[in-house]
């Protein structure tokens, strides 16, 4: 397989002004006739370039050029291409091809999901529909006619507006619909749906007074699960008008729910296609986090209409141009809809758990990658989540008003164009007058920068000095020494005994360049660190403070500062920055867990540091006070210990068994020490109010269920009884599922029979609800008990399981390998062998999924030598598979380097 480099980008040799597709769907095959108005690109470097199109798995029936048939000697068909050596400067291209959606298990291009036909074209799926210039900088006006059987496919959809529909002229069992999209778009935004679907309708009036029809298409049985998505869509449309001044630009906006889908959803122009898991929601079948996910993904795809569709990417190296920006946008939207601090904590938690791990592994790449073999492998946490953090830093550096001016300029200047990340930053630079040359290192260098901070308080002078030292570890593309320093915004406050201190920076820093300081109020600032080492001195500091550093996680870095445990407690209780209160709770928990890990490794008896228990006790007491300002969701997050995966990531050598033991030990200790408080909080929050996915209710349920989880770990059986009651009585999926999880994950003998019965009842009740069955798989796959792997293997034979449905694979295999570390990393290597088997099977079925499932195996460097050898052996085994897809090849090879 070939590596593609950003530096080798060339403008396209040809442009396609108009694309007319006729897609005739028959049972067993589909005929696609594409009529393309092609001309040479005046900007091409080669005015005699041959025509080179992309296409895959297409059986060519005929090609004509300006009406003249091309004989097969006049063109060359490769594995993924079609070459015509001589073509005129302007011509009409007509290609008739035959494809078989029914046997397309890759879920790219046109495929069949259950009884429905649908498409997924990003990034390079359109080439499986017809031969084309399948690259995002070739933008064309699309007209699409779909012809299909009336009975099996009553609904026929494509992008844009419906212009004509009717019976097929020759066969009255068939009908057609023609859609026209007036906005030029790249092929990756093309979509088509045909099938038997029900619809809910609504409308939205844009700020300029235009009426937009909103339609969500689902299987008839799912009609009652669309309201939340519809509300989220309308809220998103309003929000984008208010916050970004962006209005919707077609008369209709459609969403279609599909069960077999590789991604979460896809922003095709005017016709978003969604994984059912990201659009369907109902209190009885969907958890709170499911509701929040639907809201976030609906918003994300809608926001792409501007950040992605109106202004798109020049090439796939620019993927974060649309994804980083759009994730930032959806994250701010969700923050406005719910709890801002808790949303921030969730985002950062994901970043630290998963993106930091990616950045430290063999697939590490810059937000703007410089090369790839298979672009599907670059729909990553780095491009999405870190990309969003980079945009957030621009927002922090410029402030909301100037950032908005920058986004206005960007949208206005580049509307209808395919552009680069540099174009985006240039707009931000222009409106602010700032030079972002150094800032571009965030886009061009891989790896998570590390910032070490030391402090010095001088009581005599009443000065307080903070010294920042930054570095970035070696990643596949560059060594630590080669990396240039970053511009790092550091949100900061100083917490004193009597409250937060006024910040006055001494004009002359002790060393390095003068720090650029932006003042927002007296007690909070954003420092800009630009040098490898830099000191900032504050004056008029009356007491030795506790520094509150990297407030609101102002930069995606690992920040090290030697906090005493009492200092962390002070931040947990008094920091005005909610994010840092949570972060302090995590740091304290990590220290306490690491004590136990060390004891375990030294065969000493573990001891629990009471500091954490006391701090948790305060939180539980405070949140119960009638006039408490504490957000219960925030307390829930603070009481949640860091994951085993995160603890593994920050260990020198991850000892999975000791980590599992230690985290569990700390949880049990908290449960036994705070039994009464946990139970009281549980009861106080356990209401019978009718379900609503409101921030207030979600917060209450999250804390309640955290308390239940702890309470069930105490030595008595009361928590198990409560969980069982909650499971039996639950009227919403959040409470039902959380209780089920407590029962199933408990290692208490008293829980075992209840868990068994609950699992059986749960399945019996929800077996017709595919998404709920996925939850049922996950709760079993993540069970810590020793027989988990055998159980997962047995579940693969369950009639509800299939390797062909990505959601099922993620729910069972993905959950086990990603979120059951103590069993996945079994010392005998059976977990690794199991995953390798799945990847080898998926390699032929669905290469994108196969490559994605490799992630846990890419992290072999974190573990002990025995496990490293075992993991590498499985990677080698996968590498030897004769027909390895590009997707899997790239990840396996990079992992074994
Ligand atoms: N559908 C994916 C997303 O919205 C890819 N564009 O992020
Ligand atoms: Zn996206």
From TrEMBL:
Pfam families per UniProt: DUF3458, DUF3458_C, Peptidase_M1, Peptidase_M1_N
Limits of the Peptidase M1 membrane alanine aminopeptidase domain: 229-442
Organism of this sequence: Marinibactrum halimedae
Function: Aminopeptidase N is involved in the degradation of intracellular peptides generated by protein breakdown during normal growth as well as in response to nutrient starvation.
SUPFAM superfamilies linked to this entry: Leukotriene A4 hydrolase N-terminal domain (SSF63737), Metalloproteases ('zincins'), catalytic domain (SSF55486)
Protein name, entry field: Aminopeptidase N
Keywords: Aminopeptidase, Hydrolase, Metal-binding, Metalloprotease, Protease, Zinc
GO MF annotations in UniProt: alanyl aminopeptidase activity; metallopeptidase activity; zinc ion binding
Needed cofactors: Zn(2+)
Limits of the Peptidase M1 alanyl aminopeptidase Ig-like fold domain: 447-562
Domain named Peptidase M1 alanyl aminopeptidase C-terminal: residues: 566-897
Family affiliation: Belongs to the peptidase M1 family.
Primary enzyme class: hydrolase
Reactions catalysed: Release of an N-terminal amino acid, Xaa-|-Yaa- from a peptide, amide or arylamide. Xaa is preferably Ala, but may be most amino acids including Pro (slow action). When a terminal hydrophobic residue is followed by a prolyl residue, the two may be released as an intact Xaa-Pro dipeptide
């Amino acid at each position: 397989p070939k590596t593609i480099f950003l530096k080798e980008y060339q403008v396209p040799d040809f442009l396609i002004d108009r694309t007319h597709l006729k897609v005739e769907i028959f049972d067993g095959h589909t005929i696609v006739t594409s009529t393309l108005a092609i001309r040479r690109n005046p900007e091409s470097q080669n005015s005699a370039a041959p025509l080179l199109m992309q296409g895959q798995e297409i059986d060519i029936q005929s090609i004509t050029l300006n009406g003249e048939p091309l004989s097969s000697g006049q063109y060359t068909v490769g594995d993924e291409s079609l070459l015509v050596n001589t073509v005129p400067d302007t011509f009409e291209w007509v290609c008739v091809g035959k494809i078989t959606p029914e046997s397309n298990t890759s879920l790219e291009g046109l495929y069949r999901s259950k009884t429905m036909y649908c498409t997924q074209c990003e990034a390079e799926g359109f080439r499986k529909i017809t031969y084309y210039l399948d690259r995002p900088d070739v933008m064309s006006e699309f007209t699409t006619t779909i012809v299909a059987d009336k009975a099996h496919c009553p609904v026929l959809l494509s992008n844009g507006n419906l212009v004509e529909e009717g019976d097929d002229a020759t066969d009255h069992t068939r009908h057609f619909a023609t859609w026209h999209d007036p906005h030029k778009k790249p092929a990756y935004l093309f979509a088509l749906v045909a099938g038997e679907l029900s619809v809910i309708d609504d409308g939205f009036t844009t700020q300029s007074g235009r009426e937009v029809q909103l339609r969500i298409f689902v299987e008839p049985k799912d009609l009652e699960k669309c309201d939340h998505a519809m509300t989220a869509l309308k809220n998103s449309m309003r929000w984008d008008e208010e916050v970004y001044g962006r209005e919707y630009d077609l008369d209709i906006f459609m969403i279609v729910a599909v069960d077999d889908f590789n991604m979460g959803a896809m922003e095709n122009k005017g016709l978003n296609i969604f994984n059912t898991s990201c659009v369907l929601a109902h209190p009885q079948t969907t958890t709170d986090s499911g509701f929040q996910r639907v809201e976030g993904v609906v918003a994300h795809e809608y926001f792409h209409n501007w950040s992605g569709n109106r202004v798109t990417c020049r090439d796939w190296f620019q993927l974060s141009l649309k994804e980083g920006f759009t994730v930032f946008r959806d994250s701010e939207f969700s923050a406005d809809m719910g709890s801002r601090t808790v949303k921030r904590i969730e985002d950062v938690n994901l970043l630290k758990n998963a993106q930091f791990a990616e950045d430290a592994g063999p697939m590490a790449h810059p937000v703007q990658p410089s090369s790839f073999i298979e672009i599907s492998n670059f729909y990553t946490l780095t491009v999405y989540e870190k990309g969003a953090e980079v945009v957030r830093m621009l927002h922090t550096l410029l402030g909301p008003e100037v950032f908005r001016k920058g986004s206005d300029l960007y949208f206005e200047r580049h509307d209808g164009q395919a552009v680069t990340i540099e174009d985006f930053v240039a707009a931000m630079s222009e409106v602010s007058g700032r030079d972002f040359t150094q800032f571009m290192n965030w886009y061009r260098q891989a790896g998570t920068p590390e910032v070490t901070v030391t402090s010095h308080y001088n009581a005599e002078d009443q000065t307080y000095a903070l010294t920042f030292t930054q570095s970035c570890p070696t990643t596949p593309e560059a060594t630590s020494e080669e990396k240039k320093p970053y511009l790092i915004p550091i949100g900061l406050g100083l917490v004193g005994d009597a409250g937060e201190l006024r910040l006055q920076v001494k004009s002359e820093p002790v060393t390095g360049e003068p720090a650029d300081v932006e003042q927002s109020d007296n007690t909070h600032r954003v420092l800009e660190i630009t040098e490898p080492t830099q000191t900032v001195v504050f004056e008029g500091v009356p007491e030795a403070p506790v520094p509150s550093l990297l407030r609101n996680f102002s930069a995606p870095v690992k920040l090290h500062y030697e906090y005493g445990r009492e200092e962390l407690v002070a931040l947990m209780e008094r920091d005005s920055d909610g994010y840092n209160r949570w972060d302090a709770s995590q740091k304290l928990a990590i220290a306490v867990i690491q004590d136990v890990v060390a004891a375990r490794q030294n065969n000493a008896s573990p001891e629990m540091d009471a500091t954490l228990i006391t701090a948790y006790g305060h939180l539980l007491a405070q949140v119960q006070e009638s006039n408490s300002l504490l957000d219960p969701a925030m307390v829930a997050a603070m009481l949640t210990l860091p994951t085993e995966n995160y603890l593994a990531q920050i260990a020198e050598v991850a000892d999975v068994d000791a980590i599992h033991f230690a985290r569990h030990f700390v949880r049990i200790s908290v449960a036994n020490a705070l039994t009464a408080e946990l139970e009281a909080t549980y009861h106080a929050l356990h209401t019978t109010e009718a379900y609503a996915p409101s921030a207030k209710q979600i917060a209450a349920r999250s804390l309640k269920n955290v308390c239940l989880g702890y309470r069930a770990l105490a030595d008595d059986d009361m928590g198990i009884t409560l969980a069982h009651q909650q499971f039996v009585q639950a009227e919403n999926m959040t409470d039902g599922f959380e209780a089920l999880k407590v029962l199933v994950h408990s290692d208490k003998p008293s829980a075992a029979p209840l868990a068994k019965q609950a699992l059986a009842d749960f399945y019996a009740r929800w077996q017709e609800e595919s998404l709920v069955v996925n939850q049922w798989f996950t709760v079993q796959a993540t069970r810590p008990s020793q027989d988990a792997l055998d159980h997962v293997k047995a579940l693969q034979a369950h009639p509800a399981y299939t390797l062909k449905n990505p959601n099922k694979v993620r729910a069972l295999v993905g959950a086990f390998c990603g979120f059951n570390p103590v069993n996945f990393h079994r010392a005998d290597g059976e977990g690794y062998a199991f995953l390798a088997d799945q990847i080898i099977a998926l390699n032929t079925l669905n290469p994108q999924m196969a490559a994605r499932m490799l992630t846990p195996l890419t992290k072999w460097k974190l573990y002990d030598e025995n496990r490293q050898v075992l993991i590498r052996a499985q990677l080698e085994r996968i590498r030897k598979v004769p027909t390895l897809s590009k997707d899997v090849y790239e990840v396996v090879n990079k992992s074994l380097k």
